[in-house]
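Hi R.,

As promised on Friday, here is the backbone we talked about, encoded as structure tokens. Could you run it through your design pipeline when you get a chance and send me back a sequence?
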């Protein structure tokens, strides 16, 4: 029940995102508008798959909370769901998700897979990434998107993303496609399945402690 309500709320919140409303609301709720990207407290008890290894010389920098949509398309010939599109926004605190759009600190530009600051007045950094290892979500792999270990690259600008080297996505809720056996059977070729996704993102940079 709670999950459903949360999902509906998130849904209406993200509709706004999908309409691509990018006007600045700064000033409307000045106390709630964040001025920096990142929550520097390591998430307690966070699950990281054992084969996700961050090379020595890189350390945790900050975490972010993700809320977004994923779309997967059924390829009836291969019987596989293929990633189609995704949209996501990032928050410093999980509870900030409900205060969107005032509270979002970053967003993902889906075409180029580029992280962009949502508060360019305070932080102009961007980065792209490519994922190198994935593992099934530890609690419910049929409903939740895979955990991902990704390499950050092409960092630009000044701010939180400027020196990021690795990214881990974990604690996903939602975002998995139906089983491949249902693609081409229950769901026809070309069917686009959409789901709401939330997750925790851990970001690493060069350092030794
Ligand atoms: C669907 O899968 C088949 C077999 O792997 C592949 O040849 C084809 O290009 C795919 N179609 C699309 C639209 O991706
Ligand atoms: C990492 O481990 C998971 C199981 O936790 C496995 O499914 C996945 O294939 C592994 N990835 C690599 C690259 O070894
Ligand atoms: C790096 O990022 C900048 C700014 O977003 C972009 O203009 C440039 O094309 C990117 N370069 C590569 C190799 O992705």
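Update: got your reply. Pasting your designed sequence below so it's all in one thread:
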């Amino acid at each position: 029940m709670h999950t459903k309500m949360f999902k509906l709320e998130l849904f209406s919140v993200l509709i706004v995102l999908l309409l691509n409303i990018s006007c600045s609301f700064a000033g409307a709720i000045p106390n709630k508008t964040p001025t920096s990207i990142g929550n520097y407290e390591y998430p307690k008890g966070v699950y990281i798959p054992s084969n996700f290894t961050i090379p020595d010389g890189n350390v945790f920098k900050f975490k972010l909370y993700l809320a977004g949509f994923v779309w997967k398309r059924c390829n009836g010939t291969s019987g596989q769901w293929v990633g189609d599109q995704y949209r996501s926004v990032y928050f410093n605190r999980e509870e900030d998700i409900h205060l969107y759009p005032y509270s979002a600190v970053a967003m993902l530009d889906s075409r180029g897979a580029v992280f962009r600051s949502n508060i360019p007045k305070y932080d102009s950094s961007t980065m792209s990434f490519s994922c190198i290892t994935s593992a099934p979500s530890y609690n419910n792999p049929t409903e939740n998107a895979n955990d991902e270990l990704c390499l950050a690259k092409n960092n630009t600008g000044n701010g939180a993303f400027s020196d990021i080297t690795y990214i881990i996505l974990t604690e996903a809720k939602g975002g998995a496609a139906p089983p491949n056996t249902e693609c081409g059977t229950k769901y026809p070729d070309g069917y686009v399945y959409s789901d709401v996704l939330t997750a925790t993102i851990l970001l690493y940079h060069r350092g030794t402690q």
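One thing I noticed while checking it: Confidence is low (pLDDT under 50) at residues 1-8, 16-28.

Thanks again,
M.
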